[in-house]
Amino acid sequence: MVLLDGRVAVVTCAGQGIDAAIARGLRSPGAQVVVSDINGDADMSVATDIGGTDVARDATDEQQMRHLVAATARDHGRRGLFVNSASMTPDASLQEVTGADFDKAITVHLHAAWPGVREASGVKPGQKTGSIVNISSLFGKSGNPGQTDRSAAKAWIVGLTKAAAKELAHHHVRVNAVHPSLTSTPMTAAAMPPEVLAE
Description:
6-stranded parallel beta sheet
């Protein structure tokens, strides 16, 4: 029996980079993967490549996340895993970051995580199981110069994860955070010099 055979996994913002790799990694051991991204062409490409399902959604929009979770339950039955991931990689010194920059970092990171956690945590009678994984960052734990807004937003995801884990434990729903270090992806390649990624 394949490890994840019969399980359903939703991966948000999975049109490229780490999140697309997560979708592929979940599909390989047998999960039915629902790929979601604000870029409909990107999520369709990944879903087609791995034999999954694409549902174009904006992870920062509460109603769209509600529809994503409802559509997954309707089309695939039991939910198994919900991977919450959204990111941006701004580079600016503390003095250069504007209030608008900071608000954008919070919207992209935290406002994309919270609706997913809330909607995915809905437990139906007889389905007292599940797993929610939030993608934070190593910089959310250690900080990173030049990324004060992103570091702060990723740290808030850690707090969200811990609180949700305690609240949902009695439903046997696990909530965890993963903290990737700097990874070469299309997003980071566009924002950082090659020599930084090579270190």
